[in-house]
Amino acid sequence: xxxxxxxxxxxxxxxxxxxxxGEIPPxxxxxxxxxxxxxxxxxxxxxxxxxxxxxxxxGEALWAKKTGNLDKACADCHGxxxxxxxxxxxxxxxxxxALARPVTLDQRINLCRTNHQQAAALPYESRDLxxxxxxxxxxxxxxxxxxxxxxxxxxxxxQGRDLFMQREGxxxxxxxxxHDDNFDKRLAGAPITQGQxxxxxxxxxxxxxxxxxxxRLRSCMTGVxxxxxxxxxxxxxxxxxxxxxxxxxxxxxxxxxxx
Amino acid sequence: xxYKIIGDTIPKPLTGAPGDPVRGRALxxxxxxxxxxxxxxxxxxxxxxxxxAPDLTGTGNWWSAGQLRLRLVDAxxxxxxxxxxxxxxxxxxxxxxxxxxxxxxxxxxxIEDIVAFLVTLRD
Lengths: 259, 123
Description:
The complex is a heterodimer. Chain A is mostly helical. Chain A has 2 domains: 2-6 and 32-46 and 147-258, Cytochrome Bc1 Complex, Chain D, domain 2, CATH 1.10.760.10; 52-138, Cytochrome c-like domain (Cytochrome Bc1 Complex, Chain D, domain 2), CATH 1.10.760. Chain A is built from 11 helices and 7 strands. Chain A starts with a helix and ends with a strand. By secondary structure, chain B is mainly alpha-helical. Chain B has 5 helices and no strands. In chain B, helix 1 (21-29) packs across helix 5 (108-118) and helix 4 crosses helix 5 (108-118). The chains are: A mainly alpha, B mainly alpha.
């Protein structure tokens, strides 16, 4: 399996020089969905049983709710989200010209709140922030990921890739050790996936709530006994950006369900 | 605890007292020790085992205590690319979590207990 993939990767190098040995060729990429059992898949597939949809509904209400000193709603600037927000989450993190760095969808929502609504930023992993990001990401269901295409993002994608490849923590493992080299194997009985970012924010049965991709990455880091990066840190943003560019062309499936 | 590598072994125990195989078995099957996250073995009571690494059944047939000691202390001596953590090393690591910084994963006595257990895994 590992050898098969190494050979496939070598052949691919001829046409796609950007791919390092060990990285997954585009046509072999699989969402975490494909590693799940039938019950969890059914839960994701049926909107009436997908617990993430409750957050989407909350987000829809927040979208239309006036807030902040300016007493404006998201909808006052962006109108009908089903058209204005379609495909937006598929290209985040996106380069922000004023800040000269990539910002995540969560950070964009908070920039809108502070700059355009004069409202307080929402804390990471708070119910309202998750609800808004789930509502916006839901508008991109089925849309192919294009994040990372902006040439200004190139150094940040490269930084994310370096972080993905770097061993860390007391257990001295890199993201690539599990998610490129050992997906489909079992860690303490549970399947390891390719670590694709297609479903976020998503409902994890283990968490019993919706969570952001940053929460997921922080728990992978804690798992290898590394000091997790802070929410919103440049490193987590770069990792998210790299994961999204690694998933280029895969369809968005937020809010997904995972075990 | 200083140790000396000779060939592919650490021939001398890391401690004065001999390892206890019963304690060693308990350590290997404990999730927090991390072995069975990756390995499986003759541990019928452990429901969730890993398959990232070889089954530990029969380990004592092919490895000596000295070889197993080096494997646990620093597996990268056998295979620089290995994903198996070095259990008795606290240098050359990146971004170790605050609660773990400056400490090896296992103590010298724990390594000796595990070695004493692994050599008993014979068919």
